[in-house]
Each structure stands twice: as structure tokens, then as C-alpha cells.
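Q: Convert this sequence to C-alpha cells.
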Amino acid sequence: MTDYPPHQVLLSLPPAMAGVFAEVGGKPYPGWFAGCDPEGVRLGSGGGLVRLLYQSWVAGGRPETFEEWLAAFPKLAVLAGGQSRRLPAYAASGKILTPMPALRWETGQRIDGTLLDFMLPEYLRVLEAGRYPVMVSSGDVVLRFPARLPDVPEGDLAVMGMWVPAEVAGGFGVFFCSRKSPGEIAFVRQKPSPAELRELAVENVYVVDSGVWMLGARALDALLAKCGWDAARQAFADGEPSPYELYADFGPALGGAPCAPDPVISGLRASVVPVEGADFFHLGTNRQLLESMSALQNRELDQFRSGPMDRKPHPDVYVLNSDFAFRKRGPANHRIWVENCELHPDEPLVSETILTGISCPHEVLALPPGICLDVFPVTGGGLCVRPYGFEDAFKGPLGDPSTLWLGEPARVWFERRGLALDTAGAGTTDLQLARLFPVVKPAAGEGPDPAFLRWMCAREPEGDFRDLYLRERISAMEATERADLRGLSGRRRALAARILPRMRGNAASNPFYRMDLASAAELYPAAPDGRPESGDPNVLVGDAMFRAAVLRKRGETAPADAAEAEAFGILRETILASVRGLLREPRRMTLDDQIVWGRSPVRLDLAGGWSDTPPYCFARGGGVVNVAADVNGQPPVQAFVRFCESPVIVLRSIDLGIGTRIETYDELARFGEPGSGFALARAALCLAGFHPAFGARHASLAGQLQELGGGLEISLLAAVPKGSGLGTSSILGATLLGVLSDACGLGWTQAGLVRITLAVEQMLTTCGGWQDQAGAVYPGVKFLESRPGLDQHITPRWAPERVFLASGQLACCRLYYTGITRMASGILREIVRGMFLNSAAHLAVLARIRANADAVFEALLRSDYSALGRAVASSWRLNCRLDPGTDPPEVRAIFHRVRDYVTGGKLLGAGGGGYALFLAKDEEAARRLQHELESHPPNAGARFVDFSVSSTGLQITRS
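A:
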């Protein structure tokens, strides 16, 4: 059986970039594949898509037919291989690889990040929601979808549509649906006028084509046929796909009343999915690049997601990965883009300019407004100097007065410099093919002569550089083909490494600590010095973990471990400080013969787990859906406290069969020592006021207990296997704290117990969050949420319990102990490390985990069992994506065996074992599932366990 990736990302890129993408981008096959059209041939969006898919199939060795491969696993194809005439700075790499500025409301962007990095999480959300074998998108748009995606109907083809005004819709493809059948495509029009749109809107609704199409098997077969595919021969009739347009030709043939009927295409079941609250930005031109980025910068108003310096409208000025202080900026500066440049700090940039790749740090260039300049290495050696106008279209005959270069008729530039126009080509030569751009060869490590750059760009040129200009010249098309993208990438990385220390040193005025510090650590040139001057714990822990990552990259293990310990220490002290106001001095509140008895359910995590974990929940808030569950008719986590005559604390574990006596504060404080028994109980007792660090005012523990009226005997019971994934450790901590609160008059509420248990987890360095204890303290089936902030106040909302009833048509849930254990502490530490570092890979998955909790809760509110199953299955996929070790082969084998019987299922903890919850398709499927695993258990310990929803949560009673 072929081992397929979870998904594959395919990029159609310009030829030069396609050839080096895997190397330069560090994105190898089979997870990634980059292709291009054949040399000298333009296949169009449809033919290009088909060839891209075909090339990837060939690269994999063709272990099956092309059609079988297409259906085997999901594929995302991004079409970004156009000529980019009106955005020439990134023509060679493709617009999808345009460098992306740091958005002030976003966290986790790379300093060398691209539009692809920014868009990929959005694309993958849609790919997974659509459940189609192939999804295609245009590479020159920025799409932002809401946290909750609408349901994507099954069929042959589905497209994502945007609601926009008629004046905007006229520039794009538009899908029309009858008002009687609003989800079905009736017909498609390309760039209709506003008047036409208003007329058609009387009987139809319309949405703009976002460029995101999802293609099923029949739609792919139709597209392949249009491109000349011969399934019998597994080849194209002419060796290559026939040119064909997906959006312009395939689209108008869709629908019940198509504009261009086609016997194959028009019969497809085609749906449109309007997306409420989505954003659509086009990057077709220089102006659209800047206007779209500024619209993105200003789209987020939530001040929890931005700093105080970010609350003004963005100034429309972008300096990316550049050594440029830009001292002379003011209100007149707007629509400016500087990327991969070294410029004099007094460079007087004004407006409507894009500068890329320029190295001129010692001299002011003083380029005119509206003039752009691109300098980049080319194969064969040298630097290409490419000046152009902000509004240049790079289209039209060279000699035509309406054909503009540098904002004026192209011939004017030649006349002002005493050059013949035909040195660039015949008057009929298209501007894109005219040899306009010189290739110069300055000394190694230096840029072109600044005087020559001014001569190229000035309205009134000074000096005579005609000989230098005429030595070697290439066209815009040749520039795209000859760009040395390895050299360009190397320069970007070297420049980033140089400016990162300055960014860190001046982080109060830049987004350094909101960026992906994991990727920054890979580029950072030396061991970081000093500490940030900040009172923000998020900055302090981020910097400590960043230093650890840099030191570890340099092989300095011991200092790296110390820096990492510092980060976790800051987090621990931050959480402890947040609960100190809840701590009280213990007082005896029971009679001599009374026992305080605490009983807690376990929690079944359905969705959102990990979003409750600091520091993620501090920055973004958390959202978790879980179930308080009794096991085999009993709350399985219990704690007993009684006072005794001797001034000691006696601890016993009923399930482990061990015990210990604690007589001093030093013994109580050994909760952090490896191998010390009852670490959780020791930490809980400290926070309950039995240690001077947490409020005790006595010289000794014995003296404190004598004043209290006696010592304590504490018995603990956790009647579930260790490593169960049911949150037992935290729940036991909350249960013990609850009985101590009752016995010692601490007065802690449910919310207080949740927060103090979080502090206990930090004292134990297990890096846990709040969902385990909250899932048991609060009863029933519920959605637990917190707002961003250091004080995590949990708000519960309850859902009906009908899905989990013991009888009735929805009695299809099964709780299964896999017999496999894997402790979560190491997993937690690794993922929390990613949170500290704003790792883009971690944050993207965590955002989806949090959003999926909304989907699970909504399904519960509607008692929609099918939707619940799909959302729980999504929880499992996302958990596996966050930590692949969650799904070891033994667990994967269990899930594979029951796949035909379930709509969804997941392990209930962070580790790759413990308990699993299966949601069977129906009661008969539940019986078959149970028979399958009981007749052939995966190991001696595996078994089904009865459970029921706890209607009480944590209970505290006295004898």
C-alpha cells in the first residue's frame, strides 16, 4: 500500500522558481511539488492545473493510475505561474512567493515569510472542510475566511464565493444562483457590468469567484478530457495537455442555464458556497499590492491582538527585511514598499515606489516619486537593474506613444539619453520583450553605481552612462527567466540575519516578539546578549525561549537548557502571582470525627484541547468542549481528608498502595524533586497555606499544625490507569484542593479551584492547562471559554446531554481503553516550547483546534450527531497534526480497524495512548465496533468501559 502524505501542496510557478523551489524553500516532495508550463507554451489555468497534477504523479513513480492517484489523498494546487507584468518585482518567483509584511494583529509570521506562508493555513482549512480530492486557488489573491467555515456540500464541484457590491464584482468572474435554489450554480458570467448585475439580481443572487474551486472525480474527468487526456493510454494525446482555461472556459459551461453549454461540464453537480465575513484582496498590480496590505493591516480592531503602537491607521509604508532607518518619513510618505534593501537612512522616499534588492547604504539616491527600482542577480553573473513606473503595465508596442515605461512614453526615455529606440527592439516589439534592462557587474559584494541608478531613473538624467547601459541588456521576460533565485534567497537570508539583532534590541517599536521566533532563531547570527526591558511576561518568556533556541542551534546545550528553564520559571511565577490573591491561611473547620470526602468525574475532551494551555490562552484565550464523565457508575477520582492528633501530614495513595509522612516545610516543598512521591499533593498543600512561601506565618510545620489543632491524614484515589488521557492528575489536584478548602475554611469557588490547580500544574513543571480540572469541577457537557489575559477566568456554557444518553437512537458512543500508555509531560513541554516561540506551524494548528471547538458545541446544541462525528474527527486530525506522536502505529491500527463503523473518534488526552472515544454511525455499528475490538483485542489491557455524564461535577461532602 502506498504511503501517501496527509495532503500535497502543488504550486504552478515561473520556470526559474519551479526548478529551485524545493531547495530554496526547503519544501521537498511528496508534501510539496512545484511545476510549470512547457517552455514557450501557455497552457492557461485549466491546462496548467492538469499538467501540474500530472507532473506530480510522474514524480511519485506512478504506482497506480493517474485517476486512482488523484482520488487517493487531498491535493491543494495554487496557480502562480503568470508573467506578473504589472507587479514585476516578484515576477520571477511568482506572486504567491511575494514577501509578506508583519501584520500588526498577527502572531507567528516569519521574518522571511511569503504570501504562501500566510495563506497556507487558510487554504488547508478549506481543503479539509471541502473533502474534495483537488482544490485549486489563484496565487495572486489574499483570502481571509471566518473562523467557522460554512458547510461545503458534496457533489462534483464546489466554489467559494464572496459577497461584494456590484461595482466591485464587475472586475471578476461572477456566479449566479436562482433565488429558489441559492446553493446551486445557475450560470457564470465573466466581468459583467454593474447594470447587468443589477438586472440579473432581480431573480438571482450572485457572488464573486474567489478563485477557490474544489473538484470531485467527475469534474476532474471533464477537465482532463478538455485537456486531451487519454485514460486508456494514461497519457495526453499530443504529449502535453491542450491549452484550456479553467475560470474563463470551464466556468461559463457550468450550471442549469449555462452561458456556454457543454454536454459534459453542464451536467456536473456544481455548488457555490457563499462565505459570510470573508475578505478578498487582489495582488494584480503594484497599487493593489500596497492597498491590499494596508487593508489587511487595518482589518483587525481587537486590541487584545495588537499593541498600543498599532491602534492608528497604518501609514501605508512597508520596510521588509531591509537595512533602512527611514529617518525622513512624514505625512507625505505613502504607498511605499522597500524590501531586501540597504539604503541610506536619509533616503527621501515620497510616494508610489517599490524598491527591491538595492544595495546603496552610503549615498542618497533621491529617486523621483512614482518610480520603482528592482536589482537582482542573474544567472551567468551580474546584477540586472530594472527601473519601472508605479503604474506601468509592461504591455503594448515599444514605439507606441501610449505604451508607458517609467510613467512616460517609452521612446522619451531613449530620447533624453541620446539613445536610439531600436537598441531595445523594433517599434512593434511588445514592451515585455524589449531589451530595456542592463546587466552590470560591480565588484563582489557591492551594488551598481548609485550615479548609474539615478541616470536610469531620473526625468532629467545627469552624466553619460550609455556605454555601461549598452554592454548587456535583457527584457522583462528574460529577467524572469534568468533571475538567480538561489542568489536572491541567499541575500535575503544574510540580510535578515544582520538586522535581527537590531530588531531584538529595539523590539518596543517593532513586532519582533510577535514573530515566529523559532524561524528567527535559525537565522540569528550569534548568541543573543542582554534581556528585554519589558514587564510583559509574554515578552520575557518568549525572549528566554528564543535565547534557548539560538544556543541550541549553536550546540551550546547547557546554556540553552538554562535559558529554557528560565522561560518556564517566568511562566510559573506569572501564574503563581495571578492566584496569590486567592490564597488564605488555613483554619480547622471540621469536628474531630469528621472526614471531608471529595469525588470527581474525569473529563472527555471532544475539542479545543491545547487552546487552554499557557501561554497560548494568555495571548488568545482558550475554548474547550468536554464532558464530565463517571466511569462504571462512579466518580473515579477521590480524596479524603481528616484531622489527626499528631502534628504531621500523612499522605496515602489507595490505588498505588504507597504512603509517606511529612513533618517539615522542607519536606513539603520537595514537589519539584525527581522521584519524590506525592509531588502533586505536596504542591497543593503549599498553595493551601501550609508553607511560608504561600502565607504560613509559623517557624515550623509542626508549630502550624499544633495551632491548627492537629495534623492531616489525606487519602487519594484515582481509579483509572495511569496515562489514561482523562486528565486524572489535574482532576486529582482539584479534588484535593476542594477538600482542603472545605476542611480548612479557604473558601475557594469552582472558578478559584480551576485557577489554583493551574498553578499546581506549573509548580510541577508539567505545563498543563485548565481544561482537565475545569472539565471535572463543572458538570455535564459544556463549552469552557476564557478571554486573553493572565487571569484565566473560565466561563462555562452547557449543551444538552442527549447524544450521550444510555438508551435511545443516539446511544452510539463507546469509551475504550487502548491498553497503551504514553505520558503527556514531554509532549506538553515540546508544544509549549512552540507556543513560547510563536512557531507558525504550531499557531496555525492551534487556531484551527480552537475554532473547531465552536463547531463541536454547535453540533451538540443542535443534537446533530453526524455533524458532531465530523467535528470530533477533525479534532483528532488536528491533534495528530500538532504532534504526530499522538498517533503511533498501535493507535493507528485500532482506528483503522473500526473506521467503517464510526463517524468520528479520538484519543482523549495529549499522549499517544490511554482512552479513546468512538462515535459509531448507529447502534448496529456500535455493536459491530465493540465485537471487532473485543473478539481480537490489541493487547491484554484493552477493554471497553461504561461511562455516563456526570450531572454533579466535583462533589464535596462531610461524614
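The domain at 583-959 is CATH 3.30.230.120 (Ribosomal Protein S5; domain 2).
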